């Protein structure tokens, strides 16, 4: 039966091992590190979960992080990541092992100290990343059931962004940056229209979805088909909404440091005009 060699024991349930095929791997298993020493041989069947940290920096970060985190939490986060992989049926960026462990451990410490961090774009996250939000809800529920600590809905939003980051191979800072940008753009719309868009309305959901896809198109450098006739018509018919759309695309350009195709203005104008009509009807 295949076995691996112990390279470093991080705690009773986590070791770094030398795998016959993959070289250095992180191995998680109940009691797998107990009484183990470097160079010991362990049967592969003893490993409940195993993952490869191919990036050298990631390996070092993980080795430093694990001894600082409660062993029961590491076990639960391992289950959470395993559940996510099973449900999305897609590979997750390996950084999630570090990012999620670090984030949740810190969130739990804050909770114990009575420190609450408000999530400024919770509504946006729930609307834009519904699948990731459901997975994050499940993660927070598992932590509550097993550790009797309820991290709350603000943390569900933050964890959802980490899951989205791992699924799309985007760095979490970029994901947060996009969520913050969408939140800021909505604020500009509300201030200009002097209209608080109901967060549970279809209009709000549509606007967020449109902004999200616009940011994704800009990030990928995806060209949007020009609509010259429609562009002229919208500019003539709805000059105020056209100007607001133009302003929003300029904000996107400045924040993303990437060009925005003019056709985005036309698409946005139509959404904004619908909001203007909704305001007039209310």
Structural write-up:
This protein is an alpha+beta fold and 282 residues long. The chain has 11 helices and 5 strands. It has helices spanning 56-65, 71-88, 96-112, 122-128, 130-147, 153-168, 172-193, 202-220, 228-237, 239-256, 263-281, and strands spanning 3-11, 14-19, 23-28, 41-43, 49-51. It has a 5-stranded antiparallel sheet. A hairpin with a 2-residue loop joins strand 1 (3-11) and strand 2 (14-19). The longest helix is centred in the middle third of the chain and has 22 residues, at 172-193. The mean pLDDT is 84.
Set down the secondary structure blueprint.
Elements (H helix, E strand, L loop, with lengths): L2 E9 L2 E6 L3 E6 L12 E3 L5 E3 L4 H10 L5 H18 L7 H17 L9 H7 L1 H18 L5 H16 L3 H22 L8 H19 L7 H10 L1 H18 L6 H19 L1
Antiparallel strand pairs: 1-2, 1-4, 2-3, 3-5
Helix pairs in contact: 1-3, 2-3, 2-5, 3-6, 4-6, 5-6, 6-7, 7-8, 7-10, 8-11, 9-10, 9-11, 10-11
Organism: Paenibacillus terreus
Protein name: Glucose PTS transporter transcription antiterminator GlcT
Keywords: Repeat
């Amino acid at each position: 039966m295949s076995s691996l060699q112990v390279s470093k024991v991080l705690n009773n349930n986590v070791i770094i091992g030398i795998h016959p095929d993959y070289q250095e791997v992180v191995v998680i298993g109940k009691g797998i590190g107990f009484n183990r020493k470097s160079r010991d041989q362990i049967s592969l069947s003893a490993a409940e979960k195993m993952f490869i940290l191919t990036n050298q920096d990631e390996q070092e970060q993980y080795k430093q992080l694990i001894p600082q985190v409660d062993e029961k939490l590491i076990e639960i986060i391992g289950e959470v990541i395993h559940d996510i992989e099973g449900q999305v049926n897609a590979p997750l960026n390996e950084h999630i092992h570090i990012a999620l462990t670090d984030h949740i451990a810190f969130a739990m410490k804050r909770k114990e100290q009575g420190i609450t961090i408000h999530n400024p774009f919770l509504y946006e996250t729930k609307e834009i990343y519904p699948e990731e939000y459901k997975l994050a809800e499940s993660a927070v529920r598992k932590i509550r059931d097993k550790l009797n600590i309820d991290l709350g809905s603000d943390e569900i939003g933050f964890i959802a962004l980490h899951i989205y980051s791992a699924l799309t191979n985007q760095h979490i800072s970029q994901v947060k940056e996009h969520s913050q940008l969408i939140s800021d753009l909505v604020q500009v719309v509300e201030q200009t229209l002097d209209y608080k868009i109901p967060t549970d309305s279809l209009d709000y959901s549509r606007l967020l979805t449109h902004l999200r896809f616009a940011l994704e198109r800009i990030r990928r450098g995806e060209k949007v088909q020009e609509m010259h006739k429609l562009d002229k018509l919208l500019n003539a018919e709805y000059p105020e909404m056209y100007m607001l759309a133009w302003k929003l695309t300029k904000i996107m350009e400045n924040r993303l440091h990437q060009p925005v195709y003019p056709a985005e203005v036309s698409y946005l104008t139509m959404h904004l005009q619908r909001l203007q009509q909704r305001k007039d009807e209310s």
